[in-house]
Design brief:
Layout: H1 2-16, H2 18-26, H3 33-44, H4 47-52, H5 55-62, E1 69-73, H6 81-88, E2 93-98, H7 101-111, E3 122-126, E4 139-145, H8 154-164, E5 165-176, H9 185-194, E6 197-204, E7 208-215, E8 222-227, E9 230-235, E10 238-239, H10 251-254
Parallel strand pairs: 1-2, 1-4, 2-3, 4-5
Antiparallel strand pairs: 5-7, 6-7, 8-9, 9-10
Amino acid sequence: MENASAYLKAAILITLTLPVRLAKRFHRFQPPPFIASIIEVRVLASDFRRKLQPEEKIVERSGIKAGMSVLALGCGLGVYTLGLARAVGNKGKLYALDMQPAMIERLRRRLEKPECTEFTNIETMLANAYELPFTDESIDSVVMVAVLPEIPDKDRALKEIRRILKPGGILAISETLIDPDYPLRRTTKEYCRRAGFVLLSTSGSFFNYTMQFEFQGHHTNQAYYKSGIMFVKIVGNHVLGRRCVLSAISEDRIA
């Protein structure tokens, strides 16, 4: 019954925000700060959003494991911060980063409450997606929940994420239909493809989904296989080659 109520509220919200959604298709703009704050607090940090996009599902679908170093990029009020921190455990580290000082301050105050004292593996950070305060190849996973569509220069942000991810590191992007900036899965895939990421998995539904990506350039062990009239270049588990006639194209040209 609770879930039915949550879906009903979501349908009403989507209907009410339809003019904004349509306007953003033709003209990119940022809402005034007070409107953005209302959306953040009343919508993206609401109980019914948690029912539609449960914390445990975000953690599971993002592939978060104990001992990992994870960046929650665009953490906002920290809707999923505690769940991610719980998943990485005491041997892991969660960096909760946002560019809005008010959001980080509110998250810090929340973490200071008695019920949150057990979370010693969380570090809050004030920064933007274009200049992440991490060394190269130092993070196991970057998690973004309803964040990527809000970034004006997505190519620049994704390249910066690519820089800090360890070889084999995962970029997990989750989106929900109640977000006015909600992108279709093919749109998210295209953003990441342009930045050199390959899709590893997708889960969820049209209403809320999670996609895991890996940067293909981190693979160094490359092999070539010859089968009939085809050379296929294998990079990790991903086939990046294409059909070619052996007499016309040599192995190095397929690369």
